[in-house]
């Protein structure tokens, strides 16, 4: 790095040298002009970011193309050649690539001269030992740059020199390893045959020992054998690499090559060349058997194994179908399967993804050869570990199969399922499995069971990768196969049912049949998910479920050939027939009700299929569903509530809701989707009772009492690779089970220790047994010499038996209690999962029917779920329930664009609900929960404001003029302020008085922004708490509320101009009272109060300024000026910059400028004779006083006069007299300020108010400017010179009530006005009038 930097400093002199050698001075000036940009290219080239390097190289080439003959080219070549040998190893390839791009772009640069410059700059004979390594790499990267330019193979002279240089570099093996030889092979692989014949004798020794000594020499030999075989034969004679004596040496060379690419994880080129040579010479079997399987795999090492795996993947496209069995059924593929099974640790390297890429590339490249595709896929599937294939059930490579290969693969999977051929499998056992002594792990039945479970899951997973429309025949074949073997068995073959023509060679176990059934329903879910646009449609425009139902009906009708595993009863068969009849009727429905009919049809078909799985429950559901469908489709209009609540017969929608809840209780995602789809069509007919059935599920009290819906466990439905376990995994489970039993025993012992203190009955029983065996007497006896009390052997045995039976009973009791706890825990988990699924129905309701009055009944139940989940959200399931409920409540309910506009007679109930929600929001312990309750109340206010009852009131403003604004109830938009205001007034009072209130400022700001009329009613409460006995924290919150609420345009519309001005004056008086203690804060809450008060004051100033209000600011100015010194000292001591900034922001609004450096003035008070302007301008980096231009001496007395008021008013910062916003450096003479001041000295009150540094200025009047009314006469000030713009204005003395007895001028209290676009807020109305008159007199 140091070397690089030193070169960067020294090299820029090269352009100067070029100019001295004959270039024009203009070129030198141009180089100097662009030197910074030009030099930055070389720094960016060495950066590690690839995009930066490429961009810098491209810019450098563009720069040099514009100056091909200039000095820049010479400097660029010199700089890049120097960069080849820098100390940073990451920078060398960057400079090499840039040099290659440069030589490629400028072909007129001779390569020999560049190579000569490289050798001269990095001369291996002259470099020191410490710099030998960078010099070696510089020569190597230089040759590589010449080669990458693409010109080296065309220049024979440069090529020969480069080859000689690489041979020289190859001698330094300690530094460069095999890199020069690899570079030589890469270069020679690109040269023409004639050139290679000329160079070959110089680079390749005619010695087979040398050829088989390293991978690079062998690769060079293979290159020569491929391109110039005759020249090679002349040089070395006939050579047989695959002879018996050369095979061990080939194995050692390949192991060396495998070790060299260990980090790169790629296939060495020499291995692939050997494979091609073996195929070319017809010696592939010998190469694969002797070199690969018997050589590289004999002493297994993972680098050699990975080389074999990569060689296997690379050989697939090169082999014929006859050669594939040699590769796919040998020791290598078995070793690959063992690696797949054992490589389970997270940090262990797994070769499976890389092999998937090899197989995918092979299958994609040979779509025209389905035979080879099928052979490879079947071969990989046949690699099994005790019957279980090592590949996962979901394999993405299958998507590249051609249609014939896919059909053949599905047929092979079906055949292996029905008649497993264990001999055709490449089966193996791991070392742990071989050590196991359990004979049951090696029986064929176990292998067949494991194989069948995997095969059925692979059949289902194939459907995930298929296109439904193109591969419909394959999908139907798989679906029929899974359905048939799930619920039927063949009795007699028939051609009408192809599934009956093949029999099982091994009987199908019940557990395997359960897996097949679960896979079938998973297949239905897959088909439903794939067909989103046309759900589950087939070629004949029928759902997949309908097609399967018709297939099931045909199976039921062929009772001679097929038998159902669970035969239907007469009632169940009638339910099946009625279901088919209802489906046909639904097909004939009108187009208007087609969507609802399709949803009901889907529900009927799905429950009909479930009739084979659970006949009793599904039979009852089918009857209820058919009744509900008839009533639903027969309804012309929506039922009224009186008809819906018929006590004689429950409405159909309630019955259907109960059915959907029962379906949701099943752990089937397909059932969940169907229930959601059906409910979206019936939610418009929902009744309060039906909604209550859904809400009862979310209520833990009612849900615990009513067990109408039984939640089932989903352990049988889980298909997530439960059967993809090897036997060593089962051994681990067995050992884990033993450990669990040991842990259980430890837990039991701990529970016994705990129960010993509680279970008094067990202690009494234990004492009774001990007394009966006289054990207590022997222990408690004090006569040690009496041996007659000792127990005999028989008594001890009896006592042991009694104790053992007693402890066994106690252990059973403990286990029973533990089982009961586990049962309760599992029930809780299932109940929470059921509640999460039921939330789907609520989400559908608020999404599809947001304007229904029933939506209003969801608020409090959802809030109860959120409140309970917030308190007990310890598990992930509880968090999922909370997140989903909160999402539905916030996004789908409160933030919905549509809401109920017809509440009817529910207005009074809604107002009571608003009051209840606001009260509950104030009682919560957590502010997050309180926010949900507060938002619910805001949602109800939105409903009340926009309901139909308020529309006649809202039409009145439309008839008025455009400029009129609604007031009172009209502005409320349907809200009854007499009911709402007390609710939020009490909540606001509680928020501003309670110590730990869950309510926040953000909540009330949201209320104020949505309902400004309500904000107007609540503002007196907030203003009341700005001062008074309230806590400082509450006063700060009140100020913050006012600060955020006052600038809103909606609130301003609710006030008339006099009311608004009175409100601002009232708030200003409260804030002024707060500011009397400014700078005296001791606690954090008091500091927050000060910050909030100043922030509110600045907001008031902006409001007064923008609206040109007439407000008396005398009091607040006096209070702020009295606190200046204390705040300045506090800012210096404590560093409270935020408070100080807010203070001077307010003072600037009042026309008082902030001093430049307050800390400096506090330390050094300027003398009377010193110019205040020059004192303040003493800053670091400015000219000293001795270097400044002297002013005329005639202005000296005036300067002294102008300095006296500054010394008299030390508490007011002196004015600089310059315009900061224009950044002028010329100062206004202080003498002009002194001349413009009135001759008589100001009174004490006026001096305290205005200060000496604020000269008066008459602002220019604006058009349509409202002049403020001023009471009292104005003091006459001297006329200002025309055309002279003053930097600051003096506060008008007439605006201050004269309290000083020495003042002879009559003074009255003046009302000061905020002037627009003026540095001072204290402007006199009389002065503005005079200014207007003066402007009018001017021609």
UniProtKB/TrEMBL annotation:
It is found in: Nucleus. The keyword Nucleus applies. Residues 1-27, 705-759, 952-973, 1153-1339 are annotated as: Disordered. GO terms for cellular component: nucleolus. Its main location: nucleus. Keywords: Nucleus. Residues 722-736 have a biased composition (Basic and acidic residues). Residues 705-721, 737-758 have a biased composition (Acidic residues). Residues 1175-1192, 1217-1226, 1326-1339 have a biased composition (Basic residues). Residues 1229-1257, 1312-1322 have a biased composition (Low complexity). InterPro entries: ARM-type_fold (IPR016024), DNA_pol_V/MYBBP1A (IPR007015). One of its GO terms (molecular function) is sequence-specific DNA binding. Belongs to the MYBBP1A family. This is Myb-binding protein 1A. It comes from Panthera pardus (Leopard). The gene is MYBBP1A.
């Amino acid at each position: 790095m140091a070397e690089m930097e030193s070169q960067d400093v020294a090299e820029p002199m090269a352009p100067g040298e070029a100019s001295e050698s004959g270039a024009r001075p203009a070129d030198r000036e141009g180089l100097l002009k662009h030197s910074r940009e030009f030099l930055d290219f070389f720094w960016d080239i060495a950066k590690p970011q690839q995009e930066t390097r490429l961009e810098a190289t491209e810019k450098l080439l563009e720069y040099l193309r514009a100056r091909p003959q200039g000095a820049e080219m010479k400097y660029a070549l010199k700089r890049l050649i120097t960069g080849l040998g820098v100390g940073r190893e990451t920078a060398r390839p960057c400079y090499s690539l840039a040099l290659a791009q440069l030589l490629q772009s400028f072909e007129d640069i001779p390569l020999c001269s560049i190579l000569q410059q490289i050798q001269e700059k990095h001369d291996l004979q002259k470099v020191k030992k410490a710099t030998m390594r960078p010099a070696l790499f510089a020569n190597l990267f230089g040759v590589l740059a010449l080669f990458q330019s693409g010109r080296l193979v065309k220049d024979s002279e440069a090529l020969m020199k480069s080859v000689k240089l690489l041979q020289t570099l190859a001698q330094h093996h300690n530094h460069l390893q095999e890199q020069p030889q690899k570079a030589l092979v890469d270069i020679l692989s690109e040269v023409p045959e004639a050139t290679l014949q000329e160079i070959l004798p110089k680079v390749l020794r005619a010695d087979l020992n040398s050829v088989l000594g390293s991978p690079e020499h062998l690769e060079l030999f293979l290159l020569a054998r491929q391109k110039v075989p005759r020249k090679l034969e002349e040089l070395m004679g006939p050579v047989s690499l695959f002879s018996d004596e050369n095979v061990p040496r080939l194995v050692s060379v390949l192991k060396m090559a495998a070790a060299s690419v260990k980090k790169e994880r790629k296939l060495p080129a020499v291995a692939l060349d050997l494979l091609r040579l073996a195929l070319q010479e017809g010696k592939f079997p010998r190469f694969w058997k002797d070199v690969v399987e018997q050589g590289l795999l004999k002493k297994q090492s993972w680098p050699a194994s990975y080389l074999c795996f990569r060689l296997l993947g690379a050989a697939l496209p090169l082999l014929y179908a006859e050669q594939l069995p040699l590769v796919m059924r040998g020791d290598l593929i078995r070793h690959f399967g063992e690696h797949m099974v054992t490589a389970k640790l997270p940090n262990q390297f797994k070769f499976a993804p890389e092999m998937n890429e090899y197989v995918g590339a092979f299958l994609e490249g040979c779509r025209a050869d389905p035979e080879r595709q099928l052979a490879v896929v079947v071969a990989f599937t046949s690699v099994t570990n005790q019957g279980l294939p090592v590949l996962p059930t979901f394999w993405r490579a299958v998507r590249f199969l051609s249609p014939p290969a896919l059909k053949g693969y599905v047929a092979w999977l079906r055949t292996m399922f029905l008649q497993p051929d264990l001999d055709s499998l490449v089966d193996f056992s791991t070392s742990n499995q071989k050590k196991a002594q359990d004979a049951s792990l090696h029986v064929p039945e176990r292998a067949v069971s494991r194989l069948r479970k995997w095969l059925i899951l692979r059949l289902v997973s194939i459907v995930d990768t298929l296109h439904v429309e193109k591969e419909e025949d394959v999908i139907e074949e798989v679906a029929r196969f899974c359905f048939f073997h799930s619920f039927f068995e063949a009795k007699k073959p028939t051609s009408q049912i192809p599934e009956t023509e093949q029999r099982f060679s091994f009987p199908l176990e019940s557990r395997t049949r359960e897996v097949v059934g679960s896979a079938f329903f998973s297949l239905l879910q897959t088909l439903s998910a794939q067909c989103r646009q046309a759900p589950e449609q087939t070629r004949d425009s029928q759902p997949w479920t309908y097609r399967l139902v018709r297939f099931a009906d045909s199976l039921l009708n062929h009772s001679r050939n097929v038998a159902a595993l669970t035969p239907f009863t007469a009632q169940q068969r009638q339910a099946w027939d009625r279901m088919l009849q209802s489906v046909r009727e639904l097909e004939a429905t009108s187009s208007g009700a087609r969507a609802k009919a399709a949803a009901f049809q889907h529900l009927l078909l799905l429950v009909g299929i479930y009739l084979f799985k659970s006949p009793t429950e599904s039979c009852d559901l089918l009857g209820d569903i058919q009744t509900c469908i008839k009533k639903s489709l027969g309804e012309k209009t929506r039922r009224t509530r009186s008809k819906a609540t018929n006590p004689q017969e429950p409405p159909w929608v309630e019955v259907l809701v109960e059915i959907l809840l029962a379906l949701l209780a099943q752990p089937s995602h397909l059932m969940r989707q169907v229930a959601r789809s059906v409910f979206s069509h019936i939610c418009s007919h929902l009744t309060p009772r039906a909604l209550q059935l859904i809400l009862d599920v979310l209520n833990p009290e009612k849900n615990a009492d009513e067990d109408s819906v039984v939640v089932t466990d989903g352990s049988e439905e889980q298909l997530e690779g439960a059967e993809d376990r090897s036997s060593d995994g089962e051994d681990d489970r067995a050992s884990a089970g033993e450990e669990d039993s040991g842990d259980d025993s430890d837990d039991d012992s701990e529970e016994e220790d705990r129960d010993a203190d509680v279970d008094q009955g067990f202690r009494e029983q234990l004492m009774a047994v001990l007394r009966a065996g006289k054990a207590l007497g022997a222990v408690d006896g004090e006569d040690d010499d009496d041996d007659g009390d000792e127990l005999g052997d028989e008594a001890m045995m009896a006592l042991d038996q009694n104790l053992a039976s007693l402890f066994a009973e106690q252990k059973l009791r403990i286990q029973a209690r533990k089982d009961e706890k586990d049962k309760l825990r599992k029930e809780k988990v299932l109940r929470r999962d059921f509640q999460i699924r039921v939330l789907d129905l609520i989400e559908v309701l608020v999404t599809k029917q947001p304007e229904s009055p029933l939506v209003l009944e969801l608020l409090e139940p959802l809030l109860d779920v959120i409140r309970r989940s917030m308190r007990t959200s310890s598990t992930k399931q509880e968090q999922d329930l909370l997140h989903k409920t909160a999402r539905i409540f916030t996004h789908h309910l409160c933030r919905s664009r549509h809401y109920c506009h017809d509440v009817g007679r529910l207005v009074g109930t809604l107002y009571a609900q608003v009051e209840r929600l606001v009260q509950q929001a104030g009682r919560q312990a957590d502010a997050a929960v309180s926010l949900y309750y507060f938002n619910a109340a805001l949602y109800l206010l939105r409903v009340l404001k926009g309901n139909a009852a308020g529309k006649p009131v809202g039409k009145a403003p439309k008839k008025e003029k455009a400029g009129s604004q609604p007031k009172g109830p009209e502005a409320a938009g349907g809200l009854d302020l007499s009911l709402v205001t007390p609710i939020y007034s009490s909540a606001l009072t509680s928020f501003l008085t309670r110590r730990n209130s869950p309510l926040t400022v953000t909540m009330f700001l949201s209320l104020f922004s949505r309902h400004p009329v309500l904000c107007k009613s609540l503002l007196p409460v907030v203003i009341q708490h700005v001062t008074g006995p309230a806590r400082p924290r509450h006063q700060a919150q009140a100020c913050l509320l006012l600060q955020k609420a006052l600038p809103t345009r909606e609130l301003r519309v609710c006030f008339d101009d006099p009311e608004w001005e009175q409100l601002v004056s009232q708030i200003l008086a409260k804030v002024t009272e707060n500011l009397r203690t400014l700078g005296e804060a001791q606690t954090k809450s008091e500091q927050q109060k000060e910050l909030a008060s100043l922030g509110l004051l600045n907001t008031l100033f902006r409001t007064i300024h923008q609206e040109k209000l007439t407000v008396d600011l005398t009091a607040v100015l006096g209070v702020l000026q009295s606190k200046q010194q204390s705040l300045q000292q506090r800012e210096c001591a404590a560093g409270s910059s935020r408070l100080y900034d807010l203070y001077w922001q307010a003072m600037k609004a009042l026309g008082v400028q902030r001093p430049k450096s307050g800390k400096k003035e506090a330390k050094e008070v300027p003398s009377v004779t010193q110019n205040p302007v020059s004192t303040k301008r003493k800053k670091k980096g400015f000219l000293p006083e001795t270097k400044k231009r002297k002013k005329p001496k005639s202005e000296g007395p005036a300067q002294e006069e102008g300095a006296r008021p500054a010394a008299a008013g030390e508490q007011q910062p002196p004015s600089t007299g310059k315009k900061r916003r224009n950044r002028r450096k010329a100062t206004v003479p202080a003498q002009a300020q002194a001349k413009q001041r009135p001759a008589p000295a100001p009174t004490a009150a006026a001096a305290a108010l205005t200060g000496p540094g604020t000269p008066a200025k008459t602002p220019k009047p604006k058009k349509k400017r409202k002049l403020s009314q001023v009471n009292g006469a104005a003091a006459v000030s001297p006329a200002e010179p025309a055309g002279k713009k003053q930097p600051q204005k003096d506060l008008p003395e007439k605006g201050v009530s004269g309290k000083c007895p020495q003042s002879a001028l009559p003074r009255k209290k003046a009302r000061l006005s905020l002037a627009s676009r003026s540095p001072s807020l204290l402007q006199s109305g009389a002065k503005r009038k005079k200014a207007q008159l003066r402007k009018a007199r001017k021609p």
